[in-house]
Design a protein that fits this description.
about 425 residues, alpha/beta, 7-stranded mixed beta sheet, binds pyridoxal-5'-phosphate
Length: about 425
């Protein structure tokens, strides 16, 4: 989006809504004409479409991604007092949901290149910090004296965690795997063990998605979903989202009010049809940044292993003087973000867990260096060129001579056509 003042927004939420306005308004009109605001065909339709998009048999629409993580854990069998292992480099919703499921979050560090859970750190954690109870064979944490029952890898910034070794460890230690796919709608992972590409959201017992407006697939309000191939998990989540009802006014358990409303579901169906194209545009913009920034010393670019096809929810670079670069881009009217500046184990909310600086050094290091550049499907080549030129100026690198960003984009499109 190019605004009159020449500002480059971090995220353009206006253009996609302007483009789709008539289809989106039609969703409102349909809801008004039928007064179908809760449940019904728009919710069921979206659930079918999103399950198919994720290569799963079920999708259960919910009111948020946070509830999706929470209900996925509960329905898959996590009990009050269990330990659920995740990463400290994620949005706090991941660990809030674990706590809300009655469990205690614990952490393993991330991989320095992918920023996702490092499977070797998970293995060390399971081997060195946990023990099996002699009588029951259950896994317990040595220090916390509580059963370790689940792991939540987070597909951060739109790229999946390395799932093969995580799933293998989960099999070995009998752990539930819930993918936090809240930032990864449409991301793919090449499973070396299965020799095929798999969709984010189809690999664990269940997966959580957020449709918060800024996500690759975003509602016009709050929304989320769980995807799963497990019929029983889907059934339990349908009950949990609707006051524990198995049928109207028959409450098998105490549940929650956490349904996906029909207007949001209808909006999500409209946008889902555009998601593959939007993701391709994000990937194109990421390739252009890669190309334009590849010769800039002092900058670490996103790493995309050959087993990943990321969807670039965010394009995150690393730089030593992050605060300086952020300020300098702001002065040039370019918005950026930091996802996330304070690792979860150092947040005040988790003070009582007793973690300290140095416990998860990779997360701590990258948290001080990361900067998210403008990234959205409607981002234009000349805007990216301006961002890159400002970065070069800040790092005191002479203006690039050579092909223009437009010609690089053209060449990239020609190569992938
Ligand atoms: C990694 C991650 N997990 C969970 C969530 C929670 O989703 P929601 O905001 O829809 O509750 C988010 C949303 O930002 C997220 O980024």
């Amino acid at each position: 989006m190019i605004t009159n003042d020449g500002k480059i927004a971090f995220l353009d939420l206006l253009s996609p809504h302007q483009e789709l306005e008539s289809e989106l308004v039609a969703v409102f009109e349909k809801a008004l004409q039928t007064a179908g605001f809760i449940g019904g065909p728009m919710v069921e339709g979206f659930e079918r479409e999103f399950a198919s998009f994720c290569d799963t048999t079920h999708c259960v629409g919910l009111s948020s991604g946070t509830d999706a993580v929470r209900f996925a854990l509960m329905a898959a069998g996590v009990q009050s007092g269990d330990i659920v292992v995740t990463v400290p480099h994620t949005f706090i919703a991941t660990t809030e949901a674990i706590s809300q499921a009655g469990a205690r979050p614990d952490f393993v560090d991330i991989d320095e290149r992918t920023y996702c859970m490092d499977p070797r750190k998970l293995e060390e954690y399971l081997e060195q910090e946990c023990y099996r109870d002699r009588e029951t064979g259950r896994l317990f944490h040595g220090r916390w004296k509580a059963p370790v029952t689940a792991v939540v890898p987070v597909h951060i910034y739109g790229q999946t965690a390395d799932m093969d070794p995580i799933l293998e460890l989960a099999r070995r230690y009998n752990l539930i795997v819930i993918e936090d796919a809240c930032q990864a709608h449409g991301a793919e992972y090449f499973s070396r063990t299965e020799n095929r590409w798999r969709k984010a959201g189809s690999m664990g017992q269940a997966a959580a998605f957020s449709f918060y407006p800024g996500k690759n697939l975003g509602a016009c309000g709050e929304a989320g979903a769980v995807t799963t191939n497990d019929e029983e998990i889907a059934r339990k989540i349908r009950m949990l989202r609707d006051h524990g009802q198995s049928k109207k006014y028959f409450h098998d358990v105490e549940g929650y009010n956490a349904r996906l409303d029909s207007i949001q579901a209808g909006i999500l169906s409209v946008k889902l049809r555009r998601l593959p194209e939007w993701n391709r545009k994000r990937q194109g913009a990421a390739r252009l940044y890669d190309e334009l920034l590849s010769s800039v010393p002092g900058l670490i670019l996103p790493h995309c292993p050959d087993w990943a096809r990321g969807v670039y929810h965010l394009y995150v670079v690393r730089v030593q003087d992050r605060e300086g670069l952020k300020k300098s881009l702001a002065q040039a009217n370019i918005d950026t973000g930091i996802h996330y500046p304070v690792p979860l184990h150092l947040q005040k909310a988790y003070e009582s867990f007793g973690y300290k600086q140095g416990d998860f050094p990779i997360t701590e290091k990258i948290a001080s260096q990361i900067l998210s550049l403008p990234m959205f499907p409607h981002l234009q080549a000349e805007q990216q060129s301006r961002v890159v030129n400002e970065i070069r100026r800040f790092l005191e690198i002479p203006e690039q001579v050579g092909p223009s960003p437009d010609s690089i984009l053209f060449e990239l499109q020609r190569r992938t056509a």
